[in-house]
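Q: I have 229 residues here and want to know how they pack in 3D. Can you give me a structure?
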Amino acid sequence: MLSLTSKASSQVLVYRLEFGEGKGINYHTYEGGYFAVPLLGGTGSFLLTSTVTTHTYVQAADSGKLFTALNGNDKKSVMSATTGSGTAKGAIVALGDVNHVIRVESPTYTLSAKIAKTLTGTAVTADDESGVTQTETSTGVGSAGVSSFKMIFDENQTSTANGLGLTLAKTLDQLILQLKTDGFTAEATTSTGTTGTTTTGTTGTTTTGTTTTGTTTTGTTGTTTTTTN
């Protein structure tokens, strides 16, 4: 059993993200992306996409947590994250029933695991932007909003990553390559952020090596899986 657990811990799980329309003030959301996490749960990373002006993506590494909650026979995969920096604060939680069995194949072995095929959740964030300098032309200050999102198990990306024996980091590289093939480019960031704008989808505010302020990015955490003999 120890050998099986060790093998399972080296596998990855990939979810595709779909964000619903957000409700709030000065509030905008990402539209989609991926969440990659170890098969047995733990810390995962996000790739978030937007097509508002151009097709762009942003990476939030090591920004989501994945675990399983139990109550008798009830078993839920839970994704959870706190978000924000400075005056921006937020949280995100999603739940999904652990009721789907997948077959994971690697170059040297095969195993089965139970996961949540779909998780649904809500992101909440707010920022009074008290640290942002306003100008005479500023049309808005402060932001707050709520948005729904869904995480859908991506069987193709999961099978590809595990079939090639990719690590979590290499899986993210593979997903970025897919996004670039689909016409997405890395999102440009600035050191001052965007006044009056809150974006949802990533945890933390450091993207592509640049720390942004005045922007809240809201993320996700994935599902926890259990292996079966």
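Q: Anything worth noting?
A: DSSP finds three helices and 16 strands in the chain. Helices lie at 2-9, 155-163, 168-181.
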